[in-house]
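Researcher: Batch entry, complex prediction.
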Amino acid sequence: MSKPSSTSFEKDSPDISNHEDEDPVVRIPVWTGIALRLALFFYTDASSFFKHRVETSTPVTSWKRFQEGLHLFQHGLPPYDGGVYHQAPLLLAVFNFLPPILIPFLFVALDYWIARGLVEIASYKRKTLQEEVWPEPTLKPTLLAPPPLEEESDEEETETPNQETAGLNRDAHTEQIKEAPKGDTLIPPWLVDDPATLLPKKRPKATKKTPSQPQDVTRPVDALLQAEDIGSIYLLNPFSVMTCLAQSTLLFTILAVIHGLRFAIRGNRSLSMLCIAIAAYLSLYPAMMIAPAVLILARNSHVGISKEMRTSLPLFIGYAVALLGLSYLLIGSWQFLESTYGVILFVPDLTPNIGLFWYFFIEMFDQFRTFFLCVFQILVFIFVVPVSMVFKNHPLFVAFLLTAIMAIFKSYPSLGDTALYLTFLSMNRELFKYMRHSFLVFSALFFASVLGPLFYYLWLYAGSGNANFFYAITLVFALAQVILITDTGFAMARREWDRLNPDLRTKRVELIHR
Amino acid sequence: MAWTNLVLTTILGLLLALHAAAAPEESYDEKLKLTQFKDGKVLAEFYFTRFISPSAVKKAKDNHYTLLPRSIGEIIQSFGVKELHLTFTQGTWNHEKWGYSPLSAPGGVQLWSWFETANVDSQWKGLTHALAGLFCASLNFIDQSATAEPLLSFRTNGTVTSASELTESNSPQLRYGSLPREAVCTENLTPWVKLLPCQTKAGIASLFNAYRLFDGNFHSMGTHLRPICTDAMCEQRGIEFVQTLAVVLDPMRLDNRKDWSLQTIFERKLDSACPVAENTQIVVTVPETSGFTFRPSPPDVKQDGKGHTIATYPIHRETPKNMDVGITWSNPTVNHTIDRTHSYIRANRYLTGYGGERGGLSVDLYNYRSSAIPVTYFESIPWILKLYLHTLKVETSVNKSTAVVGDIFFQPAIDRGRPSVLEMQLTLPPNSTTTISIEFDKAFVKYTEHPPDANRGFDIGAAVISLRADEGEQNTRIYTETLLISLPTPDFSMPYNVITLTCTLIALFFGSMFNLLTRRFEPLTIKR
Amino acid sequence: MDDAIALSAMAFIEEALEPLYVAHRAQLPSDPVYGWEGEPSGSAESFCTRCGSTAALEIHSRKTPRIDPMAHRRSIPYIFAFLSALCALTHTQATSSITSDAPTNLSLALWSPQPDINEAAIEGFFASSGHTNNWAVLVCTSRFWFNYRHIANTLSIYHTVKRLGIPDSNIILMLSDDVACNPRNHFPATIYNNAGRFIDLYGRNVEVDYRGYEVTVENFIRLLTGRHDPDVPRSKRLLTDDRSNVLVYMTGHGGDEFLKFQDAEEIGSHDIADAFAQMYEKNRYHEIFFMIDTCQAASMYKRIYSPNILAAASAEVGQNSYSHHVDPDIGVAVIDRFTYYNLETLEKLKGEDKSTLQQLFSTYNTQAIASTPGIRTDLYPRRPENALVTDFFGGVQNVQLTTAGYKLKSGNLQSQTLTKQHHPSKSGSAKRKSMVPPSRNNALQVHSERGAVSLPFVLGLMGFMAGVWFLSRVI
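Model: Structure tokens for the complex:
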């Protein structure tokens, strides 16, 4: 396979701190988000406001319910013997001895750790992006606009493209390629808006230290990922600010997921599986995150995926069982299983949230309840294997897809889940130029975020709307996210196709998907 | 034939004499207590008391029923019921104006009973269904999600299972259920009256006039059954079966006069005594010592030292038929002041908060005495409200020298499984107001769980405050109001729409993802 | 000798039991609607029309007490004597007729056959219409105060069938709401179907079997098909057999092929048809008269396919049914037209009336009812001219009191035995109790705050941490 001929790529460990003269982006440090949270916690009433919002607190993550469970636990009553407390037992152990004054600090600290984990993951992503192999086309195309860099060639494309394709190619059907007319020079789509083409003078020159533009002009140019920015994107995302202020215990799950990936990046199999096990123990659905973790571990240790699974999966199961055993020792009975995982799976509590389950099961007839419950739960878990198989070279994209599927289709989603996968999306910036519906998606997300609380208020407080209003907004929100997932999925597939079909990159190709 | 008649009659006479000499097996008493309050309202309390001796109870087990109605006897035998209390009530008892009565009851239906058998839950279900059929009420709605098991309240009156009968499986268990919304009307009165030995043909029950009974400010029918130990070790147990009816009528509203008589308030006169009853009496109580006349003149009048005059009219065979009892007043004005010596404790329960998501429940307990009163507070809240115990607060209006709250017992609700139960022992400080408050979240119930008139809301049963009485007395219980809470409703016309819309979204997602994961891009044409 | 003893014993017994007869007759309510109380302001027909002498009728007058409390006590000595005579007779009979062919049946020993009873008349009791008992299922499906008239409709029919002889134990009355004791009712504990307020339909003796929220489609279909929870009491079951004529009357708001129950759910015409079909398969009826008073009522009986069902409806498909008049004091309409005009005919009937259903149907005046009533007779074996109104609305018992005896046909003699009368009680259905999961009632004491982490947990946690550290080093 051909490698890019440029020699000025950095081959060392990822450079987290970029030089400022390299990329014209503003770097936002992580502490801004932390300061924002602390300010909102202590100088405003925002925390008690968000604690009660259904968008941020669900029956399985609500702080008020956690306080109730803690209170029952500390006063000798079984916390799981009722219909109020549905959260994991070990959280009770965490907060049992914590003085109440420190609790906001704990949640802010959780967010900080999440941000740091994201920064490390982002730098890994940056490294893998730079290391990505883009096979060069056999015939180099020319550009309409000068000047090319010294590495670029100046040849015109005078020959007709041959039938052969170079590089790893999953597709072999090229018999329908027609001959291009002679003298045809096309600008690849991603270069149309490239500053290099429009404002050639501002294009930075390649030096030894800075990475130069890729030699291959057919390869898309992506702004380099600033790892610190990703952390700030997460921290400054209003959804995650709201989740932190609401003191939602979802933050523990997010922390565990992020660190599962982080330790996988570091190659620490045991700790990675421990973190994923903690995440699964807390919320059940993040068990799916084994897939991206295993993919990362396999890649880092250069072993096959099945071998990696054989070593990692027993670790995961062992840790999960140990956690359940610890919970049993804490509570003294197995009652918590029905109250935690039973509630997540069987959805007896139909409090509204931004998901699809609640109204569906409010209006469902009893005869069909079990069937639809099974369908909905299977829908969440069924995509793990196919997604990991198709995108096995992009484990962080797999993580994005799986967290997004969880955020839409889990039984009690909240805005914290949305914040998580939006951060993963921001790491995959290279897909933005391939996305087709981004305007629709982001306007719909904005629209739903604004109207959702409004319609909720109309339904429950003003009495001038009914449940359908809020339900419709959850549908819009879910639809926007669905379109986002499919759009990015197709974008990634398209990008992969471009990567592995170098000769067709510059052609205006009509693709069908079959 | 005459000599055969004579012989037979003498034989019969001897048998009857022997019968009379034996211990009284069953006895039946009737009592009507009429009390006029200062505000002019008349409380009529009817007591129909039957005592069934242990030997008669044994006969009842062989299907031999005399005074105990067969339907009741069979019910308590089939379901192993030791003690049963069932009340049907409409209206709220006004403790401030009317004081306390053992016949005050919470609105709707309240049923509590002690069982001494295994499988108490299936027995309880059977009992509620059987009583529903007997009394034409929908008691079958008292199921496990509405049944509580109080730990401190509703204790039996000391008569426990004898030591020889007490085993692990049949130690007595208590079950309590209430339906705050149950309507009480003639169809409940009819079967209840049919249980009386003389029905409405004779005795004080001949005063029953449905049009007046259900026009009262308060009416409550009760069926009470409890065991009575006849020996020290309680090896022999009889049954006391009491049927009670309390009605508060207002002669000021009916005739615009403070004077009243049985004819004016019931439109009936007392026909004659029930021949089966051993004692029948009418007791009239007036909260004054002068300014009125009893009509007719009672054979027995006394003052009770608290400002009340009590007249007793025993009814027997010699009493003339169509007897009318009443009072005429010389001063026809009524007095609406509240006498705190007679109504020294009061409770008021209400909902707080706004909106369809959450709210609060508060109870104010007023103690107007200058001594502390120990009470037990019990309430059973349906599972549609999720109570938060960590928000429970008990506050008093005065600085307390001793702790107000004693033991607290709490049972959190399980959705569709059981109600929340909160039971507390409190000591109300003298001359104070104690407020108990707790927050809750409203549950979002399924479409099928809403009643047909969903916008009315759900009812919450009354809380029970038991005054821990001195030894020897029965516990007095006062009941708060029932509450009405509106839960957010889904759109009832939408089930199919919701299912199709959500499933469309899911299908859209699944289809797109499926395509993404299973298909490949293929170049088709290359355009210019 | 036997005959002589028997005859003399009989005469003695008759004399002895005379006061008991009187007392017993007096206990039969002269007005079954008002039962144990007097002063009904409507028709007060005597229930016992074959009682014969005016002396017996005098006892039914309202002024005298309904029961002579002393009657049973006066006859006690005679009862003792009767029983002892009985013992003597059975003993002699038993010992003397062991080898004889004469039956040892006790009743036959006492009653000697009289040849002049008309066998045919007695046989005819059971042949005319084929049914031996009557049941009525009266359903009001509407809730709320403004549907007062539907409850009044149902109670009017209840009043009629009770008056004509169906006892409460054979009537299932389903009322969706309580309007009599509704706070809006200006006249508490009453329901009137006429602005003149002549008859209080609620009266003093009403038994409502299904009330309020219990009136649901599911309960109605369970009632018809007989599939109940084992705990459902007897009074809520339709205990019909294959010789029962059932009157099913429904009223409320309906539409094309549906009837609304309590504004929350609907029953379809197919559901009713299938329920009747199940009844037919289970031999739960002899004949059904299905009467329905709603809008587009005829659509509800369109789908019935089981035999022996006659149906009458207030309006054809596409037509509404209307209320008759409003009582301004109550504030709402008090009766519907179809039921009103039916009652005009039904209220004139007496217990032994021979009016036919066809005569009832021919009184339907489309103009007055303001809709076209529908009748469906194709599933009914007889012609409406041959079917009596009292076949469905009345509970004529076909009982004749006689002092003479009737010799049963020889074919029945050998198989007849004295069976102990088995009276299943109201709670007898609880023999087979339903399985109820044990309750999870578990109120526990709230203790004061304390550190609740137990020692095993701490040890487990330490072990867990050690394991994690070890594994992260190794793997």
